[in-house]
Amino acid sequence: MDISRDKSPTAQETFLQMAQAAGLRGRLLVTIGLLLLVRLGVYLPVPGINRGAFEASIGDQALTGFLDLFSGGGFSALGIFALGIIPYINASIIIQLMTAALPSLENLQKNEGEAGRRKISQITRYVALGWSVLQSFGLAIFLNSSSANINGSSVSVAINPGPLFIAKTVLAITAGSMFVMWISELITERGIGNGASLLIFVNIVAVLPQSLGDTIKLFEGGDRAIVGRAIVLLLVFLVMIVGIVFVQEGSRRIPILSARRQVGRKLYRETKSYLPLRLNQGGVMPIIFASAVLILPVSLAQFSNNPLLSQIITSISPSGPTPWLYALFYFVLILFFSYFYASLIMNPVDMSQNLKKMGASIPGIRPGKTTSDYIEKVLNRLTFLGAIFLGLVAIIPTAVESATRVPTFRGLGATSLLILVGVAIDTAKQIQTYVISQRYEGMVKQ
């Protein structure tokens, strides 16, 4: 096979490597197999549940749609994967926030190398286990006390309600959540891309056909006004896809000059290179984290049955009486996680020190603190622009959906779109990285 040694891999080269290279092909098969396994597990039912009564009790609520988005319909089906990857994502948020606040965790992350990262991963698993038990217990309490009016009679959701039912439900859902977490780590280690992101991607793809089907039914009705509004909504989504791709790929390249160096009798000239800073450092993770945080208050309101708490949560719901408050809250969360993720990924002080060690500098900027201040200023501006765009992309489709009164996406289209496009781009880059590594391995063998 002819390969382009000095360029990025072409689409033809990528697909040929995926089919022929044993290492890349094995990673693809492992990823696909594990994703299929998770999808099959979504429909393994939690025992002791009256399905008809459960479906009647939950109705068409915002929490149901939100949980189905991340569990691929597992919550509506009430399978053992009802919580999906949500506890692991919440645990990751908690640990990363604590890492920035606790010096001991920060030392593990920055100074302990691979051993420190393994310890943090283990702590994250324990937090995910505790969070899964907590959420499973809340869901079990809700199921134990819920009932539905079917044919004029009240039917309990739990076939045999009581402490034993609660214990079995907590055990089943917690075990399912831990299994999903293990699968996500296997995909990260032995598959392609970030396991948690890919699981969310597949779950969204599994739920979107229903929304698309409901949208197509609007066209079958023949009402020109509804058809026109649906077309406007779809056009907005297409424009958003193009914008997301541009922002995800956008970067600021800061020029760097490397000093002349002498090796033996040879004197090498100074070389020019670039320090690329992405417009959106956090990728799709700020959206995922913001969406996961929004689930927490909705879950508390659903399980506590507190009228005051329910009223507060309704006010920040996309389908509530004040959707602008929901949009503002969501926007602020995206801004926060964008800056937070950028601070974790890029450290201007470390970058300045590394440039100084390599004998490189930014033209017109003195090495040391001046360089770190310059990089920090550029990084803050880029993060601000990227976060503003992410927030607008998350809010505008929802606003257009409300204006056009086309409820088929139930306010989840923007979040789904951002995650789908972001994960697709990241996964494509990961595959290209493996193709490049296979290319250079072939060069060494030749």
Can you offer a commentary on this structure?
With 446 residues, the protein is mainly alpha-helical. Helix content is 72%, strand content 7%. The protein contains 17 helices and 7 strands. A hairpin with a 2-residue loop joins strand 1 and strand 2 (153-156). Helix 6 (86-101) crosses helix 7. It is globular. The model is unreliable at 1-6 (pLDDT under 50).
Q: Keywords, please?
A:
446 residues; mainly alpha; three-stranded antiparallel β-sheet; 17 helices
- Could you report the average pLDDT, rounded to the nearest whole number? 76
Q: What strand order characterises the main sheet?
A: 6-3-7
Q: What is the distance, rounded to the nearest whole angstrom, between the alpha carbons of the first and last residues?
A: 13 Å
Beta-strand content: 5-15%
Helix count equals: 17
What Rg is obtained from the alpha carbons, in whole angstroms?
25 Å
Indicate the percent of residues in helices: over 70%
- The secondary-structure element order is HHHHHHHHEEHHHEEEEHHHHEHH
